[in-house]
Amino acid sequence: MYVWLRLKLLAFLVAWAEWIEPPLPTVETLQVVEEPQVESGVVIRVPEGPILTRAIELVLAHMNEPMTGEAKRHAVYARLIKDFPSTLKRELAQSIEAALLDIEGTK
């Protein structure tokens, strides 16, 4: 009996999921955010200054090493944590991403 009930419930949920479609975003619902983003009370800043400069140096130094991309990213991240221990780890990770974008933009 429980198997029959589960199958009926599953069939109902599948039919309901096909019937309900999420609304498509329109121009009115999309918003361009120009202010700093805030996640759980912490303002996310675009990295700049010595952190970004050091991240670019480390990324360039690890570019041609025979490692996977994740291993290179971890090596750069670990070195940034040692160089800037009081900086938020989120900002260090964002500085790696910004360094990659900066390096790819100059190619």
Helix count equals: 4
Which sheet architecture does the biggest sheet show? Answer: 2 strands, antiparallel
Q: Can you tell me the residue ranges where pLDDT is under 50 for at least 5 consecutive residues?
A: none
Kindly, what is the distance between the CA atoms of the first and last residues, rounded to a whole number of angstroms? 65 Å
Write down the overall geometry. Answer: elongated
| Strand segment tally | 2
Order of helices and strands: HEEHHH
Structure description:
This protein is mainly alpha-helical. The chain has one domain. 60% of the residues lie in helices and 6% in strands. It contains 4 helices and 2 strands; from the N terminus they run αββααα. It has a two-stranded antiparallel sheet with strand order 1-2. β1 and β2 form a beta hairpin. The model has no long low-confidence stretch (mean pLDDT 78).
Features:
6% strand, 4 helices, 2 strands, mainly alpha, 60% helix, two-stranded antiparallel ribbon, 107 residues, elongated
Please outline what is shown here.
The chain has 107 residues and is mainly alpha-helical. It is built from 4 helices and 2 strands.
